[in-house]
Specification:
Largest interface: A-B, 33 and 25 residues
Oligomer: heterodimer
Largest sheet of chain A: 7 strands, mixed
Radius of gyration of chain A: 29 Å
Largest sheet of chain B: 5 strands, mixed
Helix content of chain A: 25-40%
Number of helices of chain A: 30
Distance between the termini of chain B: 34 Å
Number of strands of chain B: 9
Number of strands of chain A: 36
Radius of gyration of chain B: 21 Å
CATH architecture of the largest domain in chain B: 3-Layer(aba) Sandwich
CATH architecture of one domain in chain A: 3-Layer(aba) Sandwich
Helix content of chain B: 40-55%
């Protein structure tokens, strides 16, 4: 925060913050200085010349937006001449602008025109030249339209695209009076525009307007706008949902609040369509004679309760399990794990985090103590060095990526480690492209060079690592054989690039690590992350502001669901269930007998499927998860689910998984819920109800409580979600000081143990969250993969995500806008391989192995290595998880989605 | 009429000196070598004392600017940029300098770079100047080979490399901040001022931006000292000025004249006076962004202050002479059309204002002469509005020809 200084405005003394933008400060102080090109989120442009003021000591007229507040400034913000000049410039603008009311957007120009009495053309002195200029329009984008006649060339869209989103797609075409905005080479739909809509949000007139629901929005008569948290990835963007007639008609980013300060991506801005989609489940379904038939709630709840009860009574409590949801709120998930632990009486509760960052969390907890990102999102911009490994951050965490791109623009050195090209490579100093499954070797190679060159932080090692230099020497010994030549042999990464990356990371002042699915979704997932943490620890790049390790989370509440206890090993707040003292504490809070809480770890996601396959799990309760898309080896998963005695799926759509269920319970979507989620940077964020659920859809937590009651178990009574959170805060000390009430006015990151605690933006400043308070090194060796290519299956298949779709696409493929950008499964293949197989882009191929077979369109792409393939997992018609393995990482039980041996063949129609 | 050698500071003996051998024979690089032996403060002081003022049009004291860049250069990185984007209508002096004596410019750049401790200099040149570019490049290559450029020049610790950057045909890129944007590879839009280039210029570093002719004065100042330099010209405008005489005169061309020479002596002297059977009716000084002078004003000496006092401008040194066949109406239309065409469109008053000025004038041109005389003051008022709030010098320009036409030669309106 800058200090306040005194300035004289129109003869009176005011105190304004020094070095802040003068126009903003004047407006904040209540002065109505006009201006259309200025926006606090972009650099000053000085284009519209409406904020003209007079500053003592400066010649002529100054523009407030181009100056900063200085001590002792004396200024006049309004007098006859200034008002006249403003009117002149406003008239100029109006003369090249088409008057046409568009109530779908706030028109700042129209508002000013009214203020200056220029709204009626007869009051203007200049002829309108709009028709003569004949500005072009562009309707080719799926998300927006551009109308040159309404454009005032304020550059806000251009700068929104370049400075805020780091995309630089928009620019000005032509020159002078004929200037207008273009995307790419001139056609929006053909440009690199990815539809984030930042330009829409910043456009001060109706020049750039979003297409969806345009006719339904009247901003001057809007019903309501509800601030909530985006339901897509784990960034946790704050947005406002505009609602008309119980229908969401617009989403816009909330400015001034972290983590996004108004920024959204294409999914966040346009992906809300699913909420009001006609395919939503509106009533419970019960399988009768093999078919799912509509039923009443009473019947459905009674059936669920009785069938779970029968299974428990017949096969014992261990025959039941549940999948919690990375997309439901903390409150829903807290109640869910409480249900499993109190009603099922076991710890068989897990969810898709097991398939996502389980290995990362396992390694982080063991090495440094917490399974969450150590930093705040803003550190992605301020770091001098960013090490991004196995994380396609621009596509999977587009708003985190905006911070990265802004950092890159200021000279941040980015190292990308990824076996295939990701868009971040464009911004990177070095791209290391290891062969699939060789990450440990690569990281050990980097550590080798760092140690050889003496880029270690000995003070940090001695003071903050268990066994200090002795532990370090163990690591040194282990990595000694990973010299650059050997590392190149194993990984395929050129030795000189290894040296270069080690130099950049090793000599960085503040480095941030981002680690993603590429690292975690392997049988060596935990080892990969150990290796990464080793590199971070010996260089001392953690334990202080602006440095650390961050696993960006893939779903809106994948962080929170574990935080609130949806883990087979941990109670809310990462408290091990195996400890009796912990059980006693939880039992007291839950008003139950400690002996009723099971102290044995439960089964993890894939283990539950295995157990079902073997007949050990008989009943399964799935809340808001779609394992029939997201689990590995889907044919095996299907067999397992079909073997279950009873499967309950609680969801908002009839997903691939729900189609196999015995009972389907209609739940609520994010916009119909109150509650909280936790972002990747441990920010506890509010979800607020904007619309009513369709049909008979109910709140997840209420459904769970109803089932518990029907099973004659009392697991608590809650007036609302805030009450659930209050109990959760008592259970989980990391959120002990958080409440819904506090979240109305405060931005809190856990740990926040007490009501007066401000939250913790950076972890480990004083100590690591291990028993000793020190971090631990876990030296690990490279291990050969079990899954290898063969003559039969000569390709290694990698899987991942794309910008336009989300996880199993249950939500995103309901959006016409998102589908307009991408709606077809594809597989990337190196051109040399395509040539050998006589394949052309656009042809359909079959990808198969022993586990399954799918079809997809082939795309040749130099971004994958020869012998490797890449496929997104979003498309139900080409479920790539038919081909992945369910062999597990022994430590975290994560499945190796990133490496499967396959073969391909052309499909002849 | 030839300017005597004693009155030359820039156009050396009128010969073409574009080979290094010829240039060396004529004394090239001796001044720089002398400067190499001095410390930076001495060089800065010499330039300051010479009283040299920027020859691009604004007439800002070169010494003050050079010192400011030197002072801002606290991190050991600054740049020197030569503004060779000679785009003002009627101006062609820099082209002649660069074509005939490219080493003089290089030597000026060496001295300026030495003064502000820059190790990289750029010549931003009008893209249409093919011959200038070719000869400058040859000169740079030859100078580099002979160690007048490059690492450790002539065995000293001073290094400089010079790069040529071609402009792409925008008048506005001759404005220094726009030029820097363009030089950085961006679109030629003017930057917000302040900061000035001396504080934050090219890539945010302290940058000295000088016109070709300004830089060409430095070798003389270094060689002979400030006092010798000041022996020509006036107290406030020392030295000589290259003028570009064009239009209805006998001998159009570039001439080096002493500052303070009355305009009529220039027009009738080197310019040779009006053509056979014609007479001089009015003069446009400084190009499109310049001012109209009546015949009765031609006694004014050519120097910054005397002209400014009369509401006239020296500008780039363009002197366009118009005889009795010239149409003031058409000339104004041409000028207004020029500004409309060259307005970059970034700021509202210039983008739309230059368009409306042009349209109003065209509209007025369909009426009679009396109407046009009445229209002119309206345009002046409009142009004043534009000038008050526009972002860069382009928007401040239309008022100059309009106002001076109104004040000085309105009776000549056709």
């Amino acid at each position: 925060m800058s200090r306040n200084v005194s300035v004289e405005i129109n003869g009176k003394v005011f105190s304004l913050p020094e070095k802040t933008n003068l126009l903003k400060s004047l407006r904040d102080a209540g002065f109505d200085v006009p201006g259309l090109c200025y926006h606090p989120r972009i650099s000053p442009t000085g284009a519209c010349r409406l904020c003209c003021i007079r500053i003592e000591g400066l010649r002529g007229i100054s523009m407030a937006c181009t100056l900063e507040v200085k001590e002792g400034m004396k200024m006049i913000t309004t007098d006859e001449e200034l008002e006249n000049l403003r009117r002149v410039n406003l008239e100029y603008l109006l003369s090249e602008h088409k008057d046409e009311e568009d109530r779908s957007t706030f028109d700042e120009l129209a508002e000013l025109a009214r203020q200056y009495g220029l709204d009626k053309p007869e009051n203007r002195s200049l002829p309108n030249i709009c028709d003569a200029l004949d500005f072009p329009s562009d309707h080719s984008s799926p998300v927006l339209t551009y109308d040159g006649n309404k454009c005032i060339k304020c550059f806000r869209c251009v700068k929104a695209c370049a400075e805020i989103q780091g995309k630089e797609v928009l620019s000005m075409a032509s020159r002078g009076i004929t200037s207008y905005i273009v995307a790419g080479f001139g056609v929006w739909g053909d440009s690199e525009c990815d539809g984030c809509g930042e330009c829409i949000q910043l456009c001060p007139t109706a020049a750039i307007v979003e297409k969806p629901h345009r006719s339904e929005i009247d901003v001057y008569n809007s019903e309501k706008a509800v601030r909530t948290t985006c339901p897509y990835c784990g960034v946790g963007c704050q947005l406002e949902l505009w609602v008309n007639n119980n229908k969401i008609v617009r989403a816009s980013g909330t400015e001034g609040l972290m983590p996004n300060d108004g920024r959204l991506c294409v999914k966040g801005r346009f992906g809300y369509e699913y909420v009001g989609h006609p395919d939503r489940l509106t009533q419970p379904l019960i399988r009768k004679n093999g078919k799912l038939e509509p039923a009443g709630w009473d019947e459905a709840i009674a059936l669920v309760a009785s069938r779970f009860g029968i299974i428990r009574d017949t096969y014992g409590k261990d025959a039941l399990a549940g999948y919690a949801s990375a997309k439901a709120t903390n409150e829903d998930n807290y109640i869910f794990q409480k249900f499993i632990r109190m009603v099922f009486g076991n710890n068989n509760v897990d969810y898709c985090t097991r398939l996502c960052h389980a290995s990362t969390v396992t390694a982080m907890i063991r090495s440094i103590g917490d399974g969450a990102g150590s930093n705040s999102i803003a550190d992605f911009e301020s770091a001098d060095c960013l090490f991004v490994t196995g994380n396609n951050i621009i596509e999977t965490h587009p708003i985190t990526a905006t911070y990265v791109k802004r950092g890159a623009a200021k000279g941040q050195a980015i190292i990308v480690v990824d076996p295939r090209y990701t868009p971040l490579v464009r911004y990177a100093k070095v791209w290391l492209q290891p062969k699939l499954g060789t990450d440990v070797a690569l990281l050990n190679g980097l550590i080798h060079v760092i140690i050889r060159e003496g880029w270690i932080d000995q003070t940090f090692i001695e003071n903050r690592i268990e066994d200090g230099m002795q532990a370090f020497l163990g690591l040194k010994e282990l990595v000694s054989r990973y010299d650059p030549a050997e590392t190149e042999r194993i990984t395929g990464v050129p030795a000189r690039l290894i040296e270069e990356a080690a130099r950049i990371f090793g000599s960085a002042k503040n480095a941030i690590i981002a680690t993603g699915m590429g690292m975690s979704q392997q049988v060596t997932g935990t080892h990969n992350v150990f290796s990464l943490i080793n590199m971070m620890l010996i260089t001392g790049q953690v334990g202080r502001e602006g440095a650390g390790i961050n696993p960006p989370r893939g779903q809106n509440n994948v962080q929170g669901a574990t935080d609130v206890g949806c883990s087979p090993m941990m109670y809310p707040g990462y408290i091990p269930i195996s400890d009796k003292e912990n059980r006693r504490r939880v039992a007291a809070l839950w008003n139950t007998d400690v002996e009723k809480l099971d102290g044995r770890p439960g089964l993890t996601t894939v283990e539950i499927v295995h157990a079902a396959h073997e007949g050990n799990i008989r009943g399964l309760y799935i809340m808001g998860e779609n394992p029939m898309m997201s689990d590995p080896n889907l044919n095996h998963t299907r067999e397992a689910f079909e073997k279950l005695d009873f499967l309950v799926v609680q969801d908002i759509f009839l997903t691939e998984t729900a189609q196999l269920a015995d009972v389907v319970l209609p739940a609520t979507a994010f916009a119909e819920k109150n509650g909280t989620t936790v972002s990747s940077d441990r920010r506890i964020l509010r979800t607020r109800k904007a619309v009513l659920p369709p049909g008979e859809g109910r709140q997840d937590w209420q459904i769970i409580l109803a089932i518990a009651a029907a099973m004659k178990s009392d697991i608590g009574h809650y007036s609302d979600e805030a009450a659930i959170f209050d109990e959760l805060a008592k259970a989980a000390p990391i959120m002990g000081g958080v409440s819904h009430a506090r979240l109305e006015n405060e931005e809190l990151q856990w740990p926040c143990p007490t009501p007066d605690h401000p939250g913790t933006p950076t972890l480990y400043l004083d100590r690591f969250n291990t028993p000793s308070g020190k971090a631990r090194l876990f030296p690990v060796d490279h291990a050969e993969q079990n899954e290898k290519t063969s003559t039969e299956f000569p390709f290694l298949l990698n899987t991942g995500r794309i910008l336009y779709h989300y996880h199993t696409s249950t939500m995103s493929r309901k959006s016409e806008v998102l589908n307009a950008f991408a709606n077809e499964a594809f597989v990337l293949i190196h051109p040399a391989d395509a040539f050998k197989r006589s394949l052309l882009s656009g042809q359909k191929i079959r990808i198969y192995n022993d586990r399954g077979s799918i079809e997809a369109i082939v795309k040749t792409d130099e971004g994958v290595l020869e012998g490797e393939l890449f496929m997104p997992f979003h498309f139900t018609e080409s479920r790539v998880n038919m081909l992945t393995r369910d062999e597990l990482d022994p430590f975290s039980k994560i499945a190796p989605f990133k490496l499967s041996a396959v073969n391909i063949e052309k499909v002849t129609s | 009429m030839k300017t005597p050698d004693a009155k030359r500071r820039i156009l050396r003996s009128g010969k073409t000196l574009w080979n290094l051998a010829d240039a060396l024979k004529a004394g090239s690089y001796q001044a720089f070598e002398k400067a190499l032996g001095k410390d930076t403060q001495e060089i800065l002081e010499e330039i300051f004392l010479s009283g040299l003022r920027g020859r691009g049009g604004a007439g800002f004291p070169t010494g003050t600017k050079t010192k400011a860049v030197h002072t801002s250069n606290t991190h050991g990185c600054s740049y020197v940029v030569c503004n060779a984007d000679e785009g003002e209508p009627g101006t062609f002096k820099d082209r002649i300098l660069m074509e005939e004596d490219p080493h003089l410019l290089l030597e000026g750049l060496l001295i300026a770079s030495l003064a502000v401790r820059a190790s990289h200099a750029y010549i931003y040149i009008r893209g249409e100047y093919g011959r200038s570019i070719e000869r400058l490049q040859t000169a740079i290559d030859e100078a580099r080979k002979a160690s007048w450029l490059g690492e450790g020049i002539r065995g000293s610790s001073f290094s400089l490399d010079i790069e040529i950057m071609r402009g792409a045909g925008s008048y506005l890129c001759g404005e220094e901040l726009t030029l820097l944007e363009s030089l950085e590879g961006k679109r030629g839009y003017p930057r917000i001022k302040p900061p000035f280039p001396a504080e934050k210029g090219l890539w945010g570093k302290p940058t000295l931006v000088n016109n070709v002719e300004t830089l060409a004065n430095l070798p003389y100042i270094m060689m002979h000292g400030a006092a010798a330099y000041r022996s020509l010209g006036t107290e406030a405008s020392p030295g000589t000025k290259l003028v570009c005489i064009s239009g209805d005169v006998k001998n159009p061309g570039v001439y080096e004249v002493e500052m303070g020479t009355p305009l009529k002596d220039i027009i009738h002297g080197p310019g040779g006076g009006s053509r056979e059977g014609d007479e001089i009716c009015f003069v446009l000084l400084g190009g499109a962004a310049g001012t109209f002078a009546s015949v009765s004003q031609l006694g004014i000496p050519l120097c910054y202050d005397a002209l400014r006092k009369e509401g006239l401008s020296l500008g780039s040194g363009a002197i366009m002479v118009f005889g009795k066949n010239a149409s003031l109406k058409d000339i104004l239309q041409n000028i207004l059309g020029f500004f409309k065409h060259e307005s970059c469109g970034k700021c509202v008053p210039c983008r739309t204002g230059t368009y409306h000025l042009m349209q109003s004038w065209i509209g007025g041109c369909t009426n009679n002469q009396g109407e046009r005389k009445k229209l002119l003051p309206q345009l002046v008022a409009e142009a004043r509005n534009i000038a008050q709030t526009c972002l860069c010098p382009l928007g401040q320009s239309p008022v100059m020809p309009l106002e001076s036409a109104m004040k000085n030669i309105i009776e000549l309106m056709d």
